[in-house]
Design brief:
With about 90 residues, the protein is mainly α. The protein contains three helices and no strands.
């Protein structure tokens, strides 16, 4: 999986290419290199990067909820298990 840092670096390089194409008005260059293709792909990659960041944030939140529930349930389970063992010994 591509890291966000690597993706941002690549987006910067794509933007630099687009800037160079904007400056170069040579028809031959624009016949071979589609500036708008790169502009579209930059927008798509940015959108995907935002979605990825949102998904990561959600994972962190859900992971925190799981950790809290696990800790609470584990404590209760140990307490109840201990009580059951003691109650069986007294029978």
């Amino acid at each position: 999986m591509t890291s966000p840092k690597k993706l941002n670096k690549f987006i910067d390089k794509l933007q630099e290419l687009v800037r160079q194409l904007e400056k170069d008005r040579n028809v031959v260059v624009h016949q071979h290199v589609n500036q708008f293709y790169y502009m579209q792909k930059i927008a798509e990659l940015r959108t995907l990067a935002e979605q990825f960041a949102e998904a990561e944030e959600r994972i962190v939140r859900v992971s925190g909820w799981i950790d809290e529930e696990y800790a609470t349930l584990f404590r209760q389970w140990r307490k109840d298990l201990h009580w059951l063992r003691l109650s069986r010994q007294s029978l």
